[in-house]
């Protein structure tokens, strides 16, 4: 289980996260909701070690991650699908997938067959440049690249952003499938409420760097949650 305990994060004098806590369990999708600029991505950066925290603890599988560099967190099973996908446009699909080998032991440096079961279109496009793919195809490639690392904590930052509805449905099915296996905790940052609600087992809502609502999906007050998402 991931446990984030009362973390504070600053950018210079700006207090970006204020005593933020959350838990994310294997076999579940935990959704982080909120408008732009409320601290969602900062929270992910803290978990991944991309931004130091000032206070609190981040624990994954009983290991305190505070002070651990990002590459060591990747080796501990954390993987990120970043906002905007950030695939390598000039590399082929196969080469993009192979970048996921970095945190793996040599004997694990191969692409699992399940990648092409989850994303069959990638097998057909292995030698196509990443920049030639559509936005939805690039998003599937970004998720597949993260899965190549064999994560036990998969973190997705707004995977529906700029994606056509048919691909959103495909991504939803993949995330649900991964959660059902029970071997992976999934942390999903999202603004698309219906997508997040349908996947979430647990949720939290952020505003101004703080958690203002949280709970289990079955107890969610949708009206209250939506009020924090509308502009």
Brief descriptors of the model:
single chain, 231 residues, alpha/beta, Rossmann fold, 6-stranded mixed sheet, 4-stranded antiparallel sheet, 9 helices, globular
Task: Describe this structure as you would to a colleague.
It is built from nine helices and ten strands. It has 231 residues and is of the alpha/beta class. It has a single domain, classed as 3-Layer(aba) Sandwich (Rossmann fold), CATH 3.40.50. The strands form two sheets. The chain has a six-stranded mixed sheet, sandwiched between helices. It starts with a strand and ends with a helix.
Secondary structure topology:
Blueprint: E1 2-11, E2 14-24, E3 29-33, H1 40-48, E4 55-60, E5 63-64, H2 70-75, E6 78-81, H3 93-98, H4 113-118, H5 120-124, H6 135-148, E7 153-157, H7 165-180, E8 185-190, H8 193-199, E9 202-207, E10 210-216, H9 222-227
Parallel strand pairs: 3-8, 3-9, 6-7, 7-8
Antiparallel strand pairs: 1-2, 1-4, 4-5, 9-10
Question: How would you concisely characterize the structure shown here?
Answer:
This protein has 231 residues and is of the alpha/beta class. It is 32% helix and 27% strand. The strands form two sheets. It has a six-stranded mixed beta sheet, with helices on both faces.
Beta-strand percent range: 25-35%
CATH superfamily, by name, is: P-loop containing nucleotide triphosphate hydrolases
| Largest sheet: spatial strand order | 6-7-8-3-9-10
Q: What's the tally of helices?
A: 9
Name of the CATH first level: Alpha Beta
CATH architecture title: 3-Layer(aba) Sandwich
- Residue stretches low in confidence (pLDDT < 50, at least 5 long) are none
Task: Estimate the mean pLDDT confidence.
Answer: 95
Overall morphology: globular
Question: Structural class of the secondary structure composition?
Answer: alpha/beta
Taking the sheet with the most strands, its summary is: 6 strands, mixed
Q: What is the terminal-to-terminal distance?
A: 33 Å
Helix amount: 25-40%
CATH topology: Rossmann fold
